[in-house]
Amino acid sequence: MKAIGGRHFDWDTRTNVFPFTRLPRVVGFADAHGIDVAPEIRALVPAASQQAEQEVARPDVYTDRAGKVVISTGYDPRLNLDPPKNCGRSFPDRSLPEEVSQVFAGVGVSPPASCAACP
Prior knowledge:
Largest sheet: 2 strands, antiparallel
Structural class: alpha+beta
Radius of gyration: 22 Å
Strand content: 5-15%
Helix content: 25-40%
């Protein structure tokens, strides 16, 4: 069991916890050691395999132990510019240089248009 990557031990429940994508290996381990696996768990193996393939294709996107999505990216100094103030909030807007707007677009953030309440 310890050889299956991503495992951690939950001391509260006294169980080994594995990422969903390791399900095929966990089921394989169970089969090799005569441990019963419920049919509804076995039915999830193809989905786990497919998700594992997708993770291999995008190693920079993953979920942490708390289940939050993490996008790991290199340092880009253009993301550290002080954006202009809009309605008392600081966020990128269309007055940023085009190359900075492209950086925000590259990480899936759409710079908002100025709001009607702004002078």
